[in-house]
Amino acid sequence: MPVDPKFEAILNEYREHLPQFREEALNIRNMLQDTFDQAGLTVAGIEQRVKAEESLAGKLELKGGKYQSLKDITDIIGLRVITFYIDDVDKVASAIERLFTIDWENSVDKRMAHEVDSFGYLSLHYICSKPDFPYRFEIQMRTVLQHAWANMNHDTGYKSGVEVPTHYLRNINRLAGMLELIDEQFSLIRSELTDYRRRVKALVASGNLDDVSLDGDSFRDFLELDPFGQLNRRIATVNQAEIQEVSLMSFLRVFKELRCNTLGDVLKLIKKYSDGAYQIACYQMGLTDLDIISSSIGPQNLCIACILKNGGGKAGLIRMFDILNGPNESNEAIAGFLLEQSAGLPFMNQ
User: Fold this and answer.
1) Closest to 48 (Cα-Cα) out of 67, 32, 71, 68
2) Is residue 36 within 8 Å of residue 95, measured between CB atoms?
3) What is the pLDDT of residues 29-56, one digit of tens each?
4) How many domains does the chain have?
5) Strand partners, 108
6) Which domain holds residue 143?
C-alpha cells in the first residue's frame, strides 16, 4: 500500500519536534501545578504524555483527509488533571481558562453525557494553546473515581468490540452508578463539613461556647483564642520564665476523657481548676531556676488538678500521660510522684 505523502510529512514533522513536545509537556504540567498551588487548589495528580508515533500513525490512517498538517492534531501533547472531588473539576477548569487560550469549538464537556454506562468517561476536555508554542494541546479533567473506573474498564476490555454478555453489562452499569453516587456524596460531605466549620468559627468568635461540640475543628478554633494564655502567664511569673509555644491539639483527647462535650465545658474546667493548676506549678518550679516553660504546662496542670480533685488518682494520671506522651514506663513514676506531692496542696482540701 503506497504511503500518503501528506501523512509522511506530518510524521516527519512530529519526529523533528519530538524533543520539543516532551519538553513542552513537562513545562505545561509545571505551569498547571504552580497555578493550582497559588490558588490553594489541591489535586490528586497531574499526568502528561506525548502521543506515541504508532498512535499518531494509526490516527492519520483512521481519520483520512481530516488532517492537513501536524497543527491540525490537537492532542499531540495531552495532560490529565485528576481531582478528589467533582466540584473541583470546575475550579481546575477555571484556572486553566485563565492560564491558556481555550479552543471552545473543539473542547468537549463529556459530563453532559447521560448514558447509563458513561461514568468512567465523564471528563471535561479542553483544547488549549499558548502564545509561545505553535501547537495545540489537550487537557482532560476528571475525578479520582472516574479515572480509576476508566482504567479498570480499559483493563477488562470493556468496549473492546467483543460482545459482552448481558449480565456482565448489567453488573458493570450497576457499579458505575454506585461510583457516580459515591463521587457525588464525597463532594456533598465536603460541602457540609465546610459549612459546619464556618458555623463553628462563628459560634466560637461570638463566645457561645456551650453550643459548640468539642471536636478537632472546634478545638483548633478555640486554641486560636489562647484560652490557656492567662494561666500560662501566671505560672511564668513564678520564675519570670519565657513561654515556648507548642501544639496543644493532643489535649483534645484528654479533655474528652474528662467528659468535656462542648467548648463551654472546657472553659468551665479552666475556671474551676486554674488555682489548682497554678499551685501544682508553684510546687514544680518553686525550688528550680527554670526560665523557659512550655505552653502545655497550663492545660496539663489543669487536667492534673481535675483528675486528682475528682478521685481519678494514679490510674487517671497515667491515662493522661499515656495519651499525651504515649505509653511508657516513666508515666507511672511521674504519676506516683504527682499524686504524693499534690496531696498537701490547698486545692485538694477546698
Assistant:
1) 32
2) yes
3) 999 999 999 999 999 999 999 999 999 9
4) 2
5) 125
6) 5-184
